[in-house]
Design a protein that fits this description.
Layout (H helix, E strand, L loop, with lengths): L24 H9 L7 H11 L1 H11 L6 H18 L8 H21 L7 H21 L5 H8 L3 H12 L32 H4 L2 H9 L3 H11 L5 H8 L3 H26 L1
Helix pairs in contact: 3-4, 3-5, 4-5, 6-8, 7-8, 11-13, 12-13
């Protein structure tokens, strides 16, 4: 049997509508009968996938959320198309080529959006529950005339209230706010970017636990060593100015500081070892 020759591809709006791809049915059926290692299979497969690409492109424009690239969604849809073409079974397919291919394409698009459109990483089962919660919240909200309570959503979906609370928290994490977005009511003139209101790590926290112990150890130092240490690190004085005030050489000040700091480090290390 000779391979079915691909017909000229329809142009313009010929691919629109439910029957726009009917000319490809014989090629899908032929592809399903060709062994995977047959030499004519790759060309026919490429032709079918290429001709169905406008379908993927149209669906991706409907599914792509605002602010997210359509290309990523289209790529996911192409993966669904390839899988569906390779699995096509004329005996079980109903509703024409669109009735078979569209669910597979949409399924891959939805899976991509579920796994990649969240700002933070959320477990898959929680994402799926969050989608159900959102749909039920919309439906119940219309029936009740108000936002439904977590307990009402739990009864509607047959899950625990704690799971509903987790799902609602996950929905809040679906999209992130830009750190460059201004905050404030605009009336007070305080509209600094959100990023400027986020605090940094305070390096002083690393030594906060040892502050009281350090003060006690400094208090036990000889008066001259304690005075030089305080002048250098708390008064931000230079060694030369300390030497001039104390009436000693700068080299002597340096030796005293080195010896004092070494002694304090040893004391702190001994105390940490004892606590450990």
């Amino acid at each position: 049997m000779h391979a079915l020759a691909p017909p000229p591809a329809p142009t313009g709006s010929a691919r629109d509508g439910r029957t726009g791809y009917d000319d490809l049915i014989p090629h899908l059926e032929r592809l399903a009968t060709i062994p995977y290692d047959a030499p004519e299979r790759p060309a026919l497969r490429d032709h079918v996938i290429t001709e169905f690409r406008p379908l993927v492109r149209n669906l991706s424009r409907r599914f792509a959320p605002a602010g997210r690239g359509v290309e990523d969604v289209e790529q996911a849809g192409m993966l669904g198309l390839v899988k569906a073409v390779d699995r096509y079974d004329p005996g079980s397919a109903t509703g024409g080529p669109l009735g078979y291919l569209v669910p597979s394409i949409r399924g891959e698009m939805k899976r991509y959006l579920r796994d990649h459109s969240w700002s933070v990483r959320v477990p898959r089962d929680l994402k799926e529950l969050a989608v159900r919660v959102q749909r039920s919240a919309d439906t119940l909200g219309q029936e009740l005339g108000r936002p439904p309570r977590p307990s009402e959503l739990a009864r509607e979906l047959g899950v625990g209230v704690d799971e509903i609370v987790d799902a609602l928290a996950a929905l809040d994490s679906h999209s992130a706010r830009s750190l460059d977005a201004p905050v404030g009511d605009g009336e007070s003139g305080d509209e600094a970017p959100l990023g400027e209101r986020i605090g940094d790590d305070d390096p002083r926290l690393d030594v906060a636990a040892h502050r009281s112990e350090m003060h006690a150890m400094i208090g036990e130092l000889p008066e001259r060593e304690r005075t030089i240490l305080m002048m250098r690190f708390y008064g931000d004085r230079t060694q030369s100015s300390i030497a001039a005030e104390m009436g000693i050489s700068q080299m002597h000040v340096s030796r005293i500081l080195t010896r004092t700091l070494s002694r304090l480090r040893e004391r702190m290390s001994e105390q940490d070892s004892a606590e450990g």
